Amino acid sequence: MPTLMLPDGNGVLVAYRTSDRTPYPAQQKGSFNRRAYAAAHVVADPLRQVDLHQRPAVDWERTIAFRRHLWDLGFAIAEAMDTSQRGMGFDWPAALELIRRSLEAARDVPGADLASGAGTDQLPDAGTFTLDRVRGAYEEQIEAIEGLGGRVIIMASRALARTARGPEDYLEVYGRLIRQSQRKVILHWLGDCFDAALAGYWGNTDVSAAMDTVLELIREHADKIDGIKISLLSKGYEIDMRRRLPKGVVMYTGDDFDYAELIEGDQEGYSHALLGIFDAIAPAASAALVRLAAGDCEEYRRILAPTVPLSRRIFEAPTQYYKAGVVFLAWLNGFQSHFAMVGGMQSTRGIVHYADVFRLADQAGVLRDPELATRRMSTLLALHGIE
Q1: How much of the chain, in percent, has pLDDT values that exceed 70?
Q2: What is this structure's pTM?
Q3: N or C: fewer beta carbons within 10 Å in the chain?
């Protein structure tokens, strides 16, 4: 197996030999008993991206091909979400084009499923607005998605976080959006660990008080809500909220630290999943979910347990830069020919981080071709003066 020298974080290079190819199939080999959404990344087109601060240039062919890869493994797609760099270089016009193309591609894939993020990111990042303007921005995106035949995930809004005066403003805005929606929606509570601009969301910096507000909203509109994804990186909060959801409304874990435990669940229940890490570990996650559905919890744990240290390294603080690790693994695994990201986000992590992700991905069995991955890792090392 290939060997290369990797930095260990102490200024020392250590020889590392990769393992065998991934043992996991490239197609789903059974059914799931959990709903599983993979939040998918976008593939930039560096040959057309003249200015990193202009509208992003996207390699649509490779971007859609990656979604087909996820569908083949049994995942639904959470489209145009945080993982696609919404609000971090990927704007609303590009997101709408992505949603349109993904919906078109899904028509050719039996059983393909997706839901798409609607937010307010067409509004400027600075300043405050009236609630009517924030709601209008949400409505514009929801109407566009539903007009294409899509289902909606109502994303957290930086503009609403700046504008709302308290819980009642969140209840008013979200209540109207939910009532107006054509189909059941998924709510998305993204914590400030992912985006500092969302601190105090739902009108309270105390998470328990904020949760009370969300639950009030859900109970009032339970017939129009499919579920809620929370990304607080706290399994305790998730389990507490999961137990309090009304019948028919499900919990989608967004916890990229403790997803294995939360999806398996306990005697009192379990979480479904809407995860960015599924983009990076899709074959292993698919195989694990198949074993879970078959009642083989021991094999489920054996497969997923090694992916958790990988996920925790990718999603370490500053957590919002996790997208770099996701795209890095897509490059190592041959899903794209380069490691260039929208807005140049690949620069947000250092070479020691990428070296650790390489090691952990290999140990988790998610490198499809260790020889290819080693060649590409060697290229990245050389760019950092390690040859």
Answers
A1: 100
A2: 0.96
A3: C
